[in-house]
Amino acid sequence: MQEPIKHQSSPAVACIFDLDGVLVDTAVYHFQAWKKLANSLGFDFTEAQNENLKGVNRMRSLDMILNWGGVDKSAAEKETLAATKNEWYVAMINKMTAAELLPGTVQLLADLKKEGVKIALGSASKNSAVILERTQLTHFFDAIVDGNVVSASKPDPEVFTTAAAMLGVPVASCIVFEDAQVGVEAAIAGKMKVVAVGTAANLKGANRYVKDLSEITVQEIMTLIKG
Ligand code: B16
Ligand code: MG
Fold first, then answer.
1. Pocket probe mutation, ligand 1, options 30, 32, 87, 94, max atoms within 8 Å of Cβ
2. Alpha-carbon span 34 to 173, nearest angstrom
3. 61 lines ligand 1 (CB under 6 A)
4. For the CA of 147, the nearest atom of ligand 1
5. Angle formed by the axes of helices 158-167 and 181-189, nearest 10°
6. Best of 125, 150, 203 to mutate for ligand 1, by most ligand atoms within 8 A of CB?
7. Where are the alpha helices (DSSP H) in the chain?
8. Is the distance from the beta carbon of residue 155 to the nearest atom of ligand 1 less than 6 Å?
9. Is any atom of ligand 1 closer than 6 Å to the C-beta of 26?
10. Burial 118-146 (b: 16+ CB within 10 A, else e)
11. What distance in Å separates the CA atoms of residue 132 and residue 58, rounded to the nearest whole number?
12. Fewer Cβ atoms within 10 Å of its own Cβ: the N or the C terminal residue of the chain?
């Protein structure tokens, strides 16, 4: 009698994507809204300072900005200021379209899906749902972990380790895509491989550097995970 053919299923691997600066460029909207808030308090900050806010959650970002302006506020006042900034920011992202996706985003997500690779979001933002809806990306994701799900801000690895747990994939089989130094550090702290969207001069410690997601293929990602 003929032996049945055994199909060996390949072990699960996962890609965990940061949102702002990796899939879509919402940094410009964060900058405009924070700048408007700072100006309303009588000071300003530079684009170079704004770089330090990437990947940092809302309340921590506000603390950093108030510190730059030498402004002291109570906890209740900070809640109001953060809510005001968020109203301005949400008004802007509510008008976003898929045209604002960064190069290579849709192609890579579609290719990963076709190959059966699990896909998760690992973002500090509490507004990820509306951004993914507006840019028509929601359907690609097997798990969405954002600022509504976790409390620890990057460089704490919680956002990425939670995503791995939700997908049921071991951290050693996960790879993170990040554009912020704190995000790269979070991935390393979570014992995951990391692809940095940026340069080695700006982002230390990644396994691979790309200008955007059009510069990497599913095959290269698999090689990085196994390496
Ligand atoms: P929200 P990411 C981060 O998104 C941004 O880079 C950071 O600038 C922002 O303060 C943070 O989300 C919180 O965003 O105010 O919408 O909750 O890069 O982790 O996707
Ligand atoms: Mg980011």
1. 30
2. 37
3. yes
4. 17
5. 50
6. 125
7. 27-40, 47-51, 58-69, 75-93, 105-114, 128-134, 158-167, 181-189, 218-226
8. no
9. no
10. bbbbbbbbebbeebbebbebeebbbbbbb
11. 19
12. N
Q: Is the CB of 53 under 6 A from ligand 1?
A: yes
Give the strand pairing for 193-197 and 208-210.
Answer: parallel
Tell whether the model's pLDDT for residue 5 goes beyond 50: no
Q: What is the pLDDT of residues 71-111, one digit of tens each?
A: 999 999 999 999 999 999 999 999 999 999 999 999 999 99
Choose among 185, 152, 155, 160: nearest CA to 59: 152
Q: Is 56 in the pocket of ligand 1 (CB under 6 A)?
A: yes
State the Cα–Cα distance between residues 171 and 128, nearest whole angstrom. 23
**Residue reference for tokens 């809806």:** 133
Which one of 20, 72, 111, 142 is the catalytic residue?
A: 20
| Ligand 2 center–CA 18 separation, angstroms | 5
pLDDT digits (tens, 9 = 90+) for 149-164: 998 989 999 999 999 9
Which tens digits make up the pLDDT trace of 184-216?
Answer: 999 999 999 999 999 999 999 999 999 999 999
Give the global pTM: 0.93
Quick one: which ligand is closest to 184's CA? Answer: 2
Residue 192: which H helix or E strand, with range? none
Sign of CA dihedral 146, 140, 99, 104: positive
- Work out whether the CA dihedral 39, 40, 43, 46 comes out positive or negative: negative
Q: Is residue 20 among the annotated active site residues?
A: yes
